[in-house]
Hints:
Number of helices: 6
Largest sheet: 8 strands, antiparallel
Shape: elongated
Number of strands: 25
Low-confidence stretches: none
CATH class of the largest domain: Alpha Beta
Distance between the termini: 65 Å
Oligomer: single chain
Number of domains: 3
Strand order of the largest sheet: 6-2-3-4-17-16-15-10
CATH superfamily of the largest domain: DNA Polymerase III, subunit A, domain 2
CATH topology of the largest domain: DNA Polymerase III, Chain A, domain 2
Radius of gyration: 25 Å
Amino acid sequence: MELVARKADLVRELQFFQQIVERKNTIPILANVLIEADGDSLTLLATDLEVALRSKCEASVTKSGSVTLPAKKLYEVVRALPESDVRLATEKSGQVVSVSAERFESHMPTLPREDFPSLPESGGGTVHTIKGSTLREMVAKTQFAITGEDTRYYLNGALFVLRPDSMTFVATDGHRLALVNAEREGGAKGGDEVKAILPRKTLSELSRLLSDGDIDVQYERGENHLFFQIGPRLLISRMIDGQFPAFEKVIPKSNDKRIEFEKDRLTSAVRRVAILSNERSRAVKLVLDKDKVEVTSSSPEFGDAREPLPVDYTGPALTICFNAQYVLDFLNVVESDVIALELKDEVSQAVLKPVGAEGYDYTYVIMPMRV
């Protein structure tokens, strides 16, 4: 194999693989990126057996071939090169690849191409077109609520429901639930819905791949894998096999008390007050009274803090306690200037929602703490 490519093109593509490859694993080939050169382009591929990414990059190929190279070190070397063309060429019967630019030259060992795992191919399923910006926003509004508990593997991802005219993302860790519904532009009425549980890592990669501009995504559901074609890049993800909880039953229907907050003022108050909260529980209290909500915290080690917020509230006095980080997670991804808190009492699930949001319906259910 021998080729020349622009440094900027190689760096741009290689950076997308850095979170996919595993630095420490029992299968050495999974730390490598597979490079296949042919014609006027090269194809890059990496996987951790749960998530895989394939991308293309323009190149001047003088000798076709394929090799695998350490993904992280290759990225670091190419990124450090001068702004010029980069030459990759195999040596010693393909066991070593030289990476050079201008006066710089390096040699990197390869692993056998035959050891690289084969990956499922798309095709055969129905291909759905999804607006990239909508998908990116829905992922951002739900992925933080995914659990990190491996024992409940079916919660280690977000449920994705695709319908002809709308789509839904929902994630929960048992203490809070994030649910977002959005319309699909140009979608037709009727038809079946397609469900899949996307692993946490898949959502992270989607966010990364969708960060540049707005591009349509071609989505296909296979038997055990999901395929997201995003421009020249194809993200392949294994589905989580399991039954997602009946989340509709968690959303309270009888929360009769509603308070609206200026988002920025509530965010600042919770962030400041939480500094003196118990470091383990991160508990902050909302003390509701006539036309006022006081955000408070206290801990034996650090003391206490409080900050009153003026609100329009005429209901009964009530105190409810939340994990401050759970509240901030929601506030950090909401764009609207006003958010609403709906609650019933001190012990029942509360709901946070953006006020005046257009294009999507966002519901955040949060369990109060008992302290």
